[in-house]
Amino acid sequence: MKFWRDILLGFLLGAIGVLAYKEYSRSHQDPQLQAALAAVQMQQVQVQNAVAQNTVLKDQAAQEINESRRNAITRAIEQVAPAVVGINVTQVREYRTQNPFWDDPYFRNLLPQRVYRQKVENLGSGFIISKDGLVITNEHVVHNATEIIVTTTSGDKHNAQIVGADYYSDIALLKIVAENLPHASLGNSDSVIIGEWAIALGNPFGLFSNNNQPSATVGVISATNRDFDRNAEGRVYKDMIQTDASINRGNSGGPLVDGEGAVIGMATMIFTESGGSLGIGFAIPVNRIKEIIDVLQAQGGVNRNYWTGLSIQNLDRLIALSMKLSGTDGVIVTDVEPNSPGDKAAFHVADVILAVNDRPVKNYNSVRSFLENEDLKVGDRLTFTVNRDGKNLDLILRLEEMPR
């Protein structure tokens, strides 16, 4: 026992001696050595600061690179994309059987054409315009629909109801039951600049269903105010915005957006020879959309059963000479029904209509073409330039519903 006690005591005395020697050495070091040690410590601090500063510079450079990748296009897409929806529709379409005997009126009466109805699946795009679930799309996307499913970017699927639809202008307003939804801002299509950026967002070929995210294509505004006469389906497209942003099957109803993230139109149709995009697409201008959806919300549809109460006929050379007119361009009013829109606009028999809304009138067909190919509805006002007793004057006619 004494042996181990002596060993422990010796160990403790040795340790105390080592510590005392270190303390003595520290307090009696050579001043030059102390300065060298201080210099080394300073260099270590400088190295540490340089490393820290280099890390900060790298972070700043990475942030600047990341910011340089962001531009007006990426910001516009980021702003509008959450309001874009995919639309899946079950429709009923009619098919008529073909038979060469129907070219003969006799056999056509004996063997009437048979009509078959078949359910088909269709897809399209749309965009939310209110936080409580109003959605805009093309009427042809939801035409004769028996079921409409709207999918948002959150992945939620909603049964949609048609608030109102206008076949003629190809615009439809839907409603889904939801709250606090992201929604797009409607811009001003009258301020569109040819050559500015245009971004089309939508659901081409149903790709939206893969991850509930819209596809974006980028181009420019190629032209504005493109007018198309009534097509084979009876629709009329006027003041259309032309773009080379790629529009494909499924993009119909999706928004066309400017560089500020405002909706300037709705992708609707393309020119194509093969069925694919050729870089010539057209969008309904948003100002027309706003006008139509206001009516759809209020009435559920657009009343185009209007009348003027005017009877007109072409001018011939004899009539033109008798009225001392310089030519035969224009149409002459032959009758004005009492209490009709024409009567209220103060039309007189023998007035010669020279222009409608500043569009020259050549003959009866030009008037009919104007009335058929304009987006006219009950309540619209038309300005007629007429010649009466050798003087030109403007008459304002408000279209009214055809009396029953």
Tally the helices: what do you get?
10
Q: Looking across the biggest beta sheet, what order are the strands in?
A: 5-4-1-2-3-7-6
- Helix proportion: 25-40%
Low-confidence sequence ranges = none
Using DSSP, what is the number of strands? 22
Give me the Rg, rounded: 38 Å
CATH topology type of the largest domain: Thrombin, subunit H
What is the 3D shape?
Answer: elongated
Structural class: alpha+beta
CATH architecture of the largest domain: Beta Barrel
Beta fraction: 25-35%
- Quaternary organization: single chain
Largest sheet, strands/sense/barrel: 7 strands, antiparallel
Give a written overview of the molecule.
With 404 residues, the chain is an alpha+beta fold. It folds into 3 domains: 2-68; 79-299, Thrombin, subunit H, CATH 2.40.10; 306-401, Pdz3 Domain (Roll), CATH 2.30.42. It contains 10 helices and 22 strands. A hairpin with a 2-residue loop joins β18 and β19 (359-360). The mean pLDDT is 84.
